[in-house]
Each structure stands twice: as C-alpha cells, then as structure tokens.
C-alpha cells in the first residue's frame, strides 16, 4: 500500500508526523475539510491557498449526483474539485447511519472510490450508534471487520483505510484496533464518534478513543472521523489522533455560528469579531451579520480558526506544551473538563509515549498534579540512593546530622540537588504553593519512603505545612524550619 506514516515529534500521546499518500505529503495533525461539491461555501482551491493539504468528500454524493457522477469518472476527483492535494473519500456509511440504508455494496463503493481516483478509500463500515447494546455492537463490528478483510482481498493495492468501530464498548474498540493492527493498516479512522461529540459526551469519547489506541499499532495514523470543533482537537491529539475532518466550518456558517477555539458564538449576538483572519479584520460584526455573503464569509472565518488551531497544536507538540494547551481548551466547557479528567485518569498508559524531557512545565491548578511528568517523577525518584538519615527540606536550608539532604519542589516532590537543573524540576514554573501541589509532592516522599524502608525520614517545612505533611506522610518526623 502506498500510505506511509512517519512520526517526527511527540508530546503526551500526540505526534507531529508526515502522512505520505502516493506522492503527496500531509503534515499531521491535519484537518481535512469536508467538501460537498453541490454547496462549496469555500472552494477547494481557496482551501489549498489557506494551507489545506488534504480534504475529504463523500463518494456516496458523487455516486448519486446527476451533475457530478460522470464528470468524476471522466476527470477524477482532483479535476472536478480543482484540488491537487490528498483527497480522501468516505464510503457513505454516514448516510447509512442517518437514513438506515445505502443501496451500494462494499465492493461497489470501493470500485467507485478508486474509479474517481480517490487517494484514500474507505470500505463500507457499519457505524454503531452509542445507544446500541453490546450484542448489536459486536455483530456490527464483525460485519465491519469482514468488509475490511474483503476490501483487502479484492483490492490489495488500494490505499485502504480501516475504520475502527465497536460502539461505546471499550473492549470491542480495543479488539477492533488489534484486528486492524494485525491486518497491517497504516491508516485507521475511529468511527461513529460524532453522536458522542454532538451530545458533549467527551468522557466516553476519551474512553473509546484510548481503547482503540491500545489495540492499534503506534505506527498507524489515526483519523477521528467527524471531529469538527477546534475546542476538542487538543484533547484528541493528546490521545494520539492525527487527522480530523470537519464539516463544522460550513454547517456552523449556515446556522450563523462563529467558531472560536473555545466554542462557538451566534453571529447575531456578537458586537465584535475577536479574530485575526482577513474576514474579521476587514469588517465589523454588524457588517458581517448584514452581508449578503454572510454564510460564505462565516465559513471562511470558521475554517481559518479551525486550521489555526491545528497549527497551534503542531507547535505545542514541538514545544512540549501540549498539556498546557489541553488544560486551557478543556476549561471552555464543563463536559470537556470531564474529558480532560478522564484523560488524566489514564496517565499511566500515556506516560509510556510522553517525552522524558520538555522545554517547560507550567502549573495550572490541581489537574496539573496528575500529569504524565508528575507520575514519571514519582516512578523515578525512588531510584536515587539514600543514606540512613534522610532530610527533605522544603526551603532547601538543610540541617546538621543527616546523611542525605533532599530539596522539595511541588507537585513533584523530593529531589537531590544534582537534579535541580534537569527536567522537570528545573524547567517547571509553579505559583505560590497550594495544598494540591504540596500533597502531590508528599506522594513523591511516600514513593521514596516505600522504596527505602531502611532509611529514616524527616521533613523540614514551615509551620503552615505541618498539618498537611503529617497527614500525607505520617511515618516521617516533621522538623520546623529555622526562622
Ligand atoms: Zn475571523
């Protein structure tokens, strides 16, 4: 197959990579705008000028269109759409989920997608809705896997994507991911998550995506099917999603909705246009609202904001600041915060992919204490050699009579002075200490004590922390700092 994926930078489970399809390259994370040939609010040529390297369109629409069917077969999609980047086609399984039927077989759609020169073709999978029980989800997954295998057998040279289904059942999603890995696919969309996103079920979204990722090979490019709003891209990328497709820029524009990285606003309620794009800087909110070209201008703005967020995420991965961006974005809606907290509940699996060293670590409140870097510090710190009498000094003053003196930095915990300049101690910025971060640091002291039962521990801290330290580290002696 002529799809390859190369990971270049990593942060959490997110990656900056290069997807190569035939002779074309797409930088990831990437956004594939959804193009409807009948209603192109923004043309593919304009998208190309905005930096779009890949788009997605629906083979089902071309198949049924009296206007485009023959042209697509004669000129190919790139000719009809006037776009020389990567074009992926969806098989029409979305229509299946909406209308309950499609008239084409798996073989038909695969033949048609190839005949219209799609760069990435998708078998006719069954998107299981979130309200389906485990029996139905398992039966439908079996059908999807059968169709993926059929696709591979019929068209071994095609650029096939292998959708991962399984409804809301994490065991099925993981099994589906493993099956796709065993078939050696480089490109795997995670399907049927749109209803979860539309109803703000981000906690379940995180569970389902992480389950699929556990099954998939780390070398597989993962496309989150139908993920449209930029406020959740950072969260999805942190889980290891590499590509998104978005119809939201156009759908929202039709509804008069103005996308921002934090959420969307009704254009009718806006007094200002808080954005740097050409549309927003060339007119007032009132002018945009009253413009005859309102839908198209809104779509241009929405797409600009969406693409800018993808660029911001790619930069954050290279800077090692994706956690900070996830934290910021997920505070824009309480249900996104649920998704973020669910992600933090899985740090043990995320930590394996997370880089050991980063440029910086900013403390942003209690959630920060559960990040990968803190977990790793608590796993690594027990390895430092200790003497018999150990002092953990909150202010670094030290005291006579100890064999080992360690400093203390929350939310990490105790560290030897040699590690003062290394990540994360040296590169972390924390505000005035709060209870959450000191408790997290005390967990680091406990890890150290468990690993060194032969040593005796004393914690030297200001009076303000005495009670908390006694609660968190009851087996240590507490020594007050010299005033
Ligand atoms: Zn704008």
UniProtKB/TrEMBL annotation:
Cellular component GO terms held in the UniProt record: cytoplasm
Cofactor binding description: Binds 1 zinc ion per subunit.
tRNA-guanine(15) transglycosylase-like domain sequence ranges: 14-334
Sample GO molecular function, one term: zinc ion binding
Catalytic class of the enzyme: transferase
Pathway note: tRNA modification; archaeosine-tRNA biosynthesis
Cofactors required: Zn(2+)
GO biological process, one term: tRNA wobble guanine modification
Binding, Zn(2+): 275, 277, 280
Binding-site list for substrate: 125, 192
Keywords, comma-separated and alphabetical: Glycosyltransferase, Metal-binding, Transferase, tRNA processing, Zinc
Catalyzed reactions per annotation: guanosine(15) in tRNA + 7-cyano-7-carbaguanine = 7-cyano-7-carbaguanosine(15) in tRNA + guanine
InterPro entries assigned to the protein according to its UniProt record, in alphabetical order: ArchSynthase1/Queuine_TRR, TGT-like_sf, TgtA, tRNA_ribo_trans-like
Record-annotated active site: 90 (nucleophile)
Enzyme Commission number(s) from the entry: 2.4.2.48
Primary role: Exchanges the guanine residue with 7-cyano-7-deazaguanine (preQ0) at position 15 in the dihydrouridine loop (D-loop) of archaeal tRNAs.
NCBIfam families (alphabetical): arcsn_tRNA_tgt, tgt_general
Family: Belongs to the archaeosine tRNA-ribosyltransferase family.
Protein known as: tRNA-guanine(15) transglycosylase
Organism per entry: Methanoculleus submarinus
């Amino acid at each position: 197959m002529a799809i390859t994926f190369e990971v270049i930078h990593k942060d959490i489970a997110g990656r900056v990579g290069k997807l190569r399809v035939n002779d074309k390259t797409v930088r990831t994370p990437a956004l594939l705008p959804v193009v409807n040939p009948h209603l192109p609010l923004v043309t593919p040529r304009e998208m190309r000028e905005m930096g779009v390297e890949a788009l997605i369109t629906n083979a089902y629409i071309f198949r049924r269109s009296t206007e485009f069917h023959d042209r697509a077969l004669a000129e190919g999609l790139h000719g009809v759409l006037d776009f020389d980047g990567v074009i992926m086609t969806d098989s029409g399984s979305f229509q299946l989920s909406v209308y309950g039927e499609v008239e084409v077989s798996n073989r038909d759609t695969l033949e048609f997608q190839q005949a219209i020169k799609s760069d990435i073709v998708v078998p006719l999978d069954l998107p299981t809705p979130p309200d389906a029980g485990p029996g139905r989800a398992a039966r439908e997954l079996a059908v999807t896997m059968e169709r993926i295998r059929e696709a591979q057998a019929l068209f071994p040279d095609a650029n096939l994507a292998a959708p991962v289904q399984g409804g809301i059942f994490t065991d099925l999603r993981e099994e589906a991911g493993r099956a796709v890995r065993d078939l050696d696919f480089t490109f795997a969309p995670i399907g049927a998550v749109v209803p979860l996103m539309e109803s703000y079920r981000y906690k379940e979204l995180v569970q389902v995506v992480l389950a699929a990722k556990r099954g998939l090979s780390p070398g597989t490019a993962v496309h989150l099917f139908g993920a449209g709003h930029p406020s959740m891209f950072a969260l999805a990328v942190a889980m290891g999603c590499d590509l998104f497709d978005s119809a939201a820029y156009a759908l929202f524009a039709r509804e008069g909705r103005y996308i921002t990285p934090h959420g969307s606003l009704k254009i009718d309620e806006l007094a200002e246009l808080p954005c740097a794009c050409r549309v927003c800087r060339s007119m007032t909110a009132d002018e945009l609202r009253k413009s005859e070209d309102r839908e198209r201008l809104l779509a241009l703005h929405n797409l600009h904001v969406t693409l800018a967020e993808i660029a911001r995420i790619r930069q954050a991965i290279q800077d090692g600041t994706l956690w900070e961006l996830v934290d910021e974005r997920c505070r824009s809606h309480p249900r996104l915060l649920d998704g973020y907290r669910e992600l933090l509940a899985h740090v043990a699996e995320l930590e394996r992919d997370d880089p050991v060293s980063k440029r910086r670590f900013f403390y942003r409140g209690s959630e920060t204490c559960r990040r990968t870097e803190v977990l790793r510090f608590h796993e690594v710190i027990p390895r430092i050699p200790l003497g018999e009498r150990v002092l953990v000094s909150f202010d670094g003053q030290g005291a006579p009579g100890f064999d080992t003196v360690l400093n203390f930095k929350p939310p990490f915990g105790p560290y030897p002075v040699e590690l003062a300049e290394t990540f994360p101690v040296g590169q972390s910025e924390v505000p005035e200490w709060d209870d959450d971060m000191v408790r997290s640091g005390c967990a680091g002291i406990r890890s150290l004590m468990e690993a060194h039962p032969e040593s005796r521990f004393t914690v030297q801290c200001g009076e303000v922390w005495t009670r908390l330290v006694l609660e968190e580290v009851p087996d240590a002696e507490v020594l007050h700092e010299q005033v």
